[in-house]
Amino acid sequence: MQKSKELLQEIVIAAGAGGTRRSPSSKEAQVAKQKAKSIHPPIEFHWHLPPPKEKKRSFGSKDSFKAILTNPLDSFRLKKSQSMKTILEGVRNPKDEQIVDSFRELLSLEGHATGKHYDYHTLLRFLRTRDFNQNRAKVMFLNYLKWREEFGVDAIAKEFKFEEYREVKECYPHGFHGVDKYGRPVYIERLGMVDIDMLLQKTTIERYVKYHVSEQEKTLHWRFPACSLAAKKHIASTTSILDVKNVGTSNFSKPARYLFLEIQKIDSNYYPETLNRLYIVNAGSGFKVLWTAIKAFLEPRTLAKIKVLGSNYLSSLLEVIDPSNLPTFLGGSCTCYDSGGCLFSDKGPWNDPEITQMLHTMIATGEECECECEDGGMRDHEAEDAYGGDTDNLQVKDVYDVTPATDETSGELAETKGPDRPSLQKIRAFEDLLTEVKIKIGTLEAALEDTKLVLQGLSQHLEELKR
């Protein structure tokens, strides 16, 4: 018989175990109520774009006709830029914005210089995770800034190369794979297949932690913006799946526990509010013993986002993820055969050529495309620092290329070529030129279409005057 206090309101353990439930005591009900109060809606809840308003085109407007003919490119580019910026930033909740402004002012009054990382979205994440208690959020946020400096997070994002990437994934299957039905990136781990001894032969815990941090930075600054552009709405959290088939106490040796605690500490303390939902699937009796101990290390807010399921999990996953974005080993239809498996593919909008070119063009033209780009966030010169000082030649793999290059004919690891090689620069310069030409062609086509409509309107107006 399970104790009701182990069943938080939003956590379901569906392992098929029988038994009866007793009614919760008044004390337990009060504790559950207090915990439930600290649970906020998904972080994107207020960030939906307003429905587009249908505007009647005025064919007889002299000013609109003159504006289109005078500078059609600037007009189109401005609208496109504003639209993309709105998508990346999201529509803000006025109440949240007021609290964030107050929090930023508090930090400033206490002598903490505003600048990078003091943007709206970052401050809101720390406020939300501390239930909008500014003093508690301040302590957590300042510890975050201190950790970034001491751990060298910016340097890791720019310089760290995880050459053992593929070997590590063989003994620790994990990775991003597609998006959920809302547009959030989907992250998957097969915990039951982790070989910790083999993992420590391929890498060290210290290097793996650095790799994990680099992936978190990539998700914040590349995956989320790419998913936002693809979904045409602000995306700021992930949907995760943890496959714990055959997991038991034997899987958690001392090194495994240490690695788990390090990653959990980093994610909870320094990347709060980036998890939308975690599905733990194939939970058997061995895992349930571990789960009792694991829960002690998790915040109530995190626990409320976790759904623990047994072997009958597929219907729950399909409610939020399309089968095409689920690997076959989870009951979906995707194999990513060409990439050597779904967890090696890094499939998602962040690798879509059109999306990455849009982000690349925005950076290359000096437009703000980061989620953390205003109110003291990442500006043009700071973007150069975050992306290795080479925004003119920015590509996804230049920034966070943790996958060793492979020779397509032999399948063996090829010598990694630096992004500063003249041949690569020429190719990328040509790609940039092609992208710019495509954008200009699209702009001209749109402007010509508008001009055609205006001329048709004028023609109709002249015909009416003749009558």
Task: Explain what you see.
The protein is built from 19 helices and six strands. The protein is α/β, with parallel strands linked by helices. A six-stranded mixed β-sheet has the order 1-6-5-4-3-2. The N terminus is likely disordered.
Mean pLDDT: 75
Q: Give unreliable regions as ranges.
A: 1-24, 48-65, 72-78, 367-419
Name the helicity range: 40-55%
Count of DSSP E strands? 6
- Total number of helices: 19
What is the 3D shape?
Answer: globular
Intertermini distance: 88 Å
Strand order of the largest sheet: 1-6-5-4-3-2
N-to-C SSE string, H for helix and E for strand: EHHHHHHHHEEHHEHEHHEHHHHHH
Biggest sheet statistics: 6 strands, mixed
Percent of residues in β-strands: 5-15%
Structural class: alpha/beta
Gyration radius over CA: 25 Å
Structure summarized in a few sentences:
The protein has 467 residues and is an alpha/beta fold.
Short key terms for the protein model shown above:
about 475 residues, 6-stranded mixed β-sheet, disordered N terminus, 6 strands, globular, alpha/beta, 19 helices
